Amino acid sequence: MRPNRREVLWTIANRYVNTDQQKTTGLTLVFLHGIGAHKETWTPVIQCLVLEIAASSSPLYVNEIWAMDCVQHGDSGLLNEASLGDTFDCADYARDLTNFLLHYLPEDTSPARRISTNLFRLPESVTDRRKIHRFSNRTVVGVGHSVGACSLINPAVEYPALLSSLVLVESMTIPEYVKYIDGHRKNEAMCLRRRWLWDSIEDATRDIHKSGYYRSWDPKCLQQFLKYAIIRTSDGKFRLKTHPYFESLMMYERLMVYEAWELLDKINPSITMHWVWGGKSERAGGPVIQITYRRKGNCSNDVHPNVGHLLPQEIPDLLGMDIFRFLCSRYCERGSRL
Fold it and tell me: Residue 59: inside a domain, yes or no?
């Protein structure tokens, strides 16, 4: 990713690999977080999913999992902070995922093969093949929350060979005709008011535990936030890795969420779509929009009536089981054994 000034922006990802692979062509899951979160916010969901797979007799094979930080957030945001500008187009999140899948996701999924910390750009011949003929030994499933889910739509439309299925958790895909009730401006103000610097980690922990925003979070997710979203500064203070200013910038640009809605019915019918909704979500449009898939066929959903927008943070275990059940329904081989 190169802005106009030609600085390089880095995307940091966590990679989890199955060291007991029984198939070389098992699933590869790619997780994208929402605004204000980070790649480690998915860890409790992933842990639940992995435990469900291990305990089940269902023949579901997952060889590799990637959880990515947006360039504005988490370790990516910290590394890129000096190069980030005063505007951000959320479509860049979709572009960066597309570049990762086309140009950087390694060909080999073998656990015996160690990959470098910095992924090298693949030959154009590999990229060209992926655009049309899928991966040679991968079946990729995209899992996203909020704007992370929205960011799966563009690559699914432009390069349908890249993605086999989409799991869209509280996706920020909104029809423009409900724009007038989109209350996102208050969220931008909330971001800008967010405290991000403390004298000690104890102060940070107390402050975050007192905040109403985090009150509904699962303790495992709150622990992940305290461990991975905060870093010690050179002068001994503690700060959020994601500066509230850069978090809020992602909310100012709203065109992508409306464009993604218009693209939903253009997603190739071969790509399975599974939606997960929170019944108490304040997402613009509410239940009427949530049940309108736009693309008929090859779609399913789960609804949690007592949960809001932050499903990965509030109900990671239930969400992990939702994903497990969907993957089993889509990919388990009947009559075979795990």
Answer: yes
Residue 296 domain-assigned (yes or no): yes
Matching residue, tokens 């979070």: 217
* Mean pLDDT comparison of 64-68, 110-114, 171-175, highest-scoring range: 64-68
User: For residue 242, is it within any domain?
Assistant: no
Helix H or strand E segment including 148: helix 147-150
Number of structural domains, the chain?
1
Q: Taking the model in full, what pTM does it have?
A: 0.93
User: For residue 253, what pLDDT is reported?
Assistant: 75
Q: Find the domain containing 103 and state its range.
A: 13-178+254-331
Q: Please indicate, yes or no, if residue 72 is contained in any of the structural domains.
A: yes
Q: What are phi and psi of 201, to 5 degrees?
A: -70, -30
Q: What percent of the chain has pLDDT over 70?
A: 89
DSSP 88-121: --THHHHHHHHHIIIIIS-S---TTS---SSPPP
Question: 97-106, 115-124, 178-187 — which is least confidently predicted?
Answer: 178-187
Strands 197-198 and 238-240: antiparallel
* Identity of residue 75: D
Residues paired with residue 275 on neighbouring β-strands, in sequence order = 168, 301
Give the closest residue to 141 by CA, choosing from 59, 73, 66, 39.
Answer: 66
Measured CA to CA, the distance from residue 26 to residue 270 in angstroms comes to: 18
pLDDT band at 183; cut points 50, 70, 90: low
- Cα 45 to Cα 4, 24, 58, 108, 265, distances in angstroms: 37, 24, 19, 25, 29
Task: Evaluate whether 77 touches 84 at the Cβ level (below 8 Å).
Answer: yes
80-111 pLDDT, tens digit per residue, is 999 998 888 889 999 999 999 999 999 887 77
Indicate the average pLDDT of the chain: 89
Q: Which of 30-34, 193-197, 310-314 has the lowest mean pLDDT?
A: 193-197
**Phi and psi torsions of 274, nearest 5°:** -120, 125
Q: What is the CATH number of the domain that holds 163?
A: 3.40.50.1820
